[in-house]
Design brief:
Layout lengths: L3 E3 L14 H11 L11 E5 L14 E5 L9 H9 L5 E7 L11 H12 L3 H15 L4 H15 L5 E7 L4 E5 L3
Parallel strand pairs: 2-3, 2-4, 4-5
Antiparallel strand pairs: 1-6, 5-6
Helix pairs in contact: 3-4
Length: about 180
């Protein structure tokens, strides 16, 4: 986890993010800063749908888009909407450790059995479903994915700062990420 930078004080926030919505996110979530009032979202947060993560942020502060692995490709129109119509100032992409969208092939049997047992699917249909969609949703290594997705989104939205972060489940904190 050499890429992760802990944020335990305002001084730990990278200078380019201090006094911005990105810095405020870190202050709210990690440092317990008092909530300001917001009339509209200033930030777009893309993160995993995993139930083990919850952000400590004020109402109306951010659009939060949650999808498996924090993969925004399938919902990129919503990202565009938040930027074009919602007028957000920055995009934060939050990955996390032990993500279910990492190494999906190892979960195929559990996935198929779950659809058969809980959803009433035929085994062959469940296997085809997994085989058709798993490659699209596989993220590989969580850290590598967040960094590569941030690069992809920067190319797509060159005027919007895109900031990769990481949520560590063991301490429920956000970490900044060093980029090469």
């Amino acid at each position: 986890m050499d890429y992760l930078v802990p944020v335990n004080s305002k001084e730990d926030i990278f200078p380019e993010y201090r006094n911005t919505p990105v810095g405020k996110l870190l202050e709210y979530h990690n440092l317990g800063a008092s909530f300001d009032d917001y009339d509209h979202a200033e930030l777009l947060i893309g993160m995993c749908m995993d139930y083990r993560k919850s952000l400590h942020i004020p109402e109306n502060f951010a659009y939060v888009l949650r999808t498996g692995g924090g993969n925004l490709k399938p919902i990129e129109f919503k990202v565009s909407y938040a930027i074009a119509v919602g007028n957000v100032k920055a995009l934060v992409l939050i990955g996390h450790n032990n993500c279910g969208m990492s190494n999906l092939s190892s979960k195929k049997e559990k996935f198929v059995n779950g659809l058969v047992d809980r959803a009433g699917w035929e085994r062959e249909m469940a296997e085809q479903h997994f085989d058709n969609f798993a490659p699209f949703f596989e993220i590989g290594n969580e850290i590598d994915f967040v960094l590569s997705e941030a690069k992809r989104l920067r190319l797509r939205y060159p005027k919007i700062p895109v900031v990769p972060m990481f949520y560590v489940l063991e301490d429920n904190r956000l970490y900044l990420m060093k980029e090469k």
